[in-house]
Amino acid sequence: MQPHIRAVIAAAAYAFVTGEKVAGLYDHTASRHLRIAAEARAERLQGYDGERHAKFGGTLPELSDAGERASIHLEVRDGEVRGYDRSSSGHFSAKVTERSVQVYDHAASAWFAFQVQVA
Questions:
Q1: Whole-number Å distance between alpha carbons of 94 and 36
Q2: 44 φ/ψ angles, rounded to the nearest 5 degrees
Q3: Residue 53: Cβ-neighbour burial (10 angstroms; 0-12, 13-18, 19+)
Q4: Which residues contact 56 (CB under 8 A, 6 or more apart)?
Q5: Mind spelling out the 3-state secondary structure of 42-83?
Q6: Counting C-beta atoms within 10 Å of the first and last residue's C-beta, which end of the chain has fewer, N or C?
Q7: How far apart are alpha carbons 49 and 66 in whole angstroms?
Q8: How many domains does the chain have?
Q9: Three-state SS for 114?
Q10: Do 16 and 60 contact (CB within 8 A), yes or no?
């Protein structure tokens, strides 16, 4: 899975689970701040990746990334997030905690941590 798709998943997961607006992410793996924003209202997500100048969003369970022309199947149940990235044919899951998200990329067999800045 591409690193920017993991960031989109992290932003979406945080916005859906907490209901808060994401104003930025810190990618611990890349050791850098990402200009990414997301807002969820009910089942709908709007987001923007400033690094790639690309919009992302949609209505659960289907999200799309305009920059990659990628489709992401994302499900949120009882605060748990899981899904499938069609561009990489890879499954993922995400854990949302206070101001952070951990994304598990099943294809890479690894966790990726993001710190969240809220609006």
A1: 17
A2: -110, 140
A3: exposed
A4: 8, 12, 38, 45, 47, 48, 49, 63, 64, 65, 66, 67
A5: CCEEEEEECCCCEEEEEECCEEEECCCCEEEEEEEECCEEEE
A6: C
A7: 10
A8: 1
A9: strand
A10: yes
Instruction: Give residue 103's domain range.
Output: 3-118
- Residue 36 CB: number of other CB atoms within 10 A? 27
Strand-pairing partners, residue 80, are 77
Task: Single out the residue of 74, 63, 65, 61 nearest to residue 103, CA to CA.
Answer: 74
Give 65: exposed, middle or buried? Use CB within 10 Å, 0-12, 13-18, 19+: buried
Q: How far is CA 96 from CA 16, 32, 50, 66, 109, in A?
A: 10, 20, 22, 25, 18
pLDDT in tens, 43-71: 999 999 999 999 999 999 999 999 888 89
